[in-house]
Amino acid sequence: MLDPTSYALYLEKEHLGYGRVGEASEFREGAINLAVEEVSAPSGTKFRLQSQHRSVAIAELKSNLSIVEQGRDTRILYWSLLDTDPEFAETGLQTIADIYVSQNVQRQSEEARATLRFLNEQVPLVQTELGKAEEPSQFLPGGPRKRQPLAGDSIRPAASGEY
Q1: Do 15 and 76 lie in a common domain?
Q2: Based on the domain organization, do 36 and 86 belong to the same domain?
Q3: Does the chain have fewer CB atoms within 10 Å around its N or its C terminus?
Q4: Considering the domain boundaries, does residue 132 fall inside one?
């Protein structure tokens, strides 16, 4: 720590750059990203950071994460994340829950769009079939039959002689 608000980052003995507490910083042209949220240490304090491959970090997180449905077919989930740091566990669970909700909303929106596309494709087909079904009625004894209005039909006043 250089002072309460800034730090220097080294890899072995190579100086990579400077960063500020509360801000995300990039080193080695974006190959290293570091965000120091808060530090409670005097100037001159040194910290040793350890890098972890993404897949290892995910596997470790998954091994400490538990999601269980409460009861059968309730769709109520019990979530827990074990960690020695309660704030990390709480933040981690909130982040996972936010991602879960976002993906669920996205999936439901896509399902709704697919249903709407299907219905829009079916309307012309149903109208064509309805037209075909009405055509033979003109050849029935007594002449053409008046069809009953369907939902969505516009209503017009009857002309004289119609009922």
Answers
A1: no
A2: no
A3: C
A4: no
Residue 140 has pLDDT above 70, yes or no: no
Mean residue pLDDT of the chain comes to 83
Sign of the C-alpha dihedral computed for residues 116, 119, 124 and 127 taken in this order: negative
Q: Do 106 and 56 share a domain, yes or no?
A: yes
Q: Closest Cα to residue 19, out of 28, 88, 57? A: 28
Q: Write down the pLDDT at residue 136.
A: 61
* Under 8 Å between Cβ of 102 and 120: no
**Domain assignment of residue 105, given as a range:** 52-126
pLDDT number for residue 21: 92
Q: Are strands 24-27 and 32-35 parallel, antiparallel or unpaired?
A: antiparallel
What confidence tier does 105 reach under pLDDT thresholds 50, 70, 90?
very high
Q: Does any domain span residue 34?
A: yes
Separation of CA 118 from chain center: 23
Q: Total domain count for the chain? A: 2
State pTM to two decimals.
0.48
**Separation in Å, CA 129 to CA 124, 135, 151:** 9, 10, 16
pLDDT given at position 151: 62
pLDDT of residue 19: 92
